[in-house]
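Question (not urgent): is this output format expected?
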Amino acid sequence: MRLFALLLLVTPGVIAVIGIKLIRDALFNVFHPVFLHVAIQGLFGVLCVIGGIAFIGGFILHRDRKRNLTKGRFQRK
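Got this back:
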């Protein structure tokens, strides 16, 4: 079960890292032929970073709520 949880967290982490690389490449004008324009490449990188971090944060919040480790602000109503 722990291996599954580790894989579940590593995959969005890798996607976020790829997003950071795409943002960096877009800033330095390194174009990948998969994307039609450098701006689209940068926007896709931003979406990958936000999505990866949001997934990891949601996973940790769900786990902490399940174990009753959150303070009053993050408790379910």
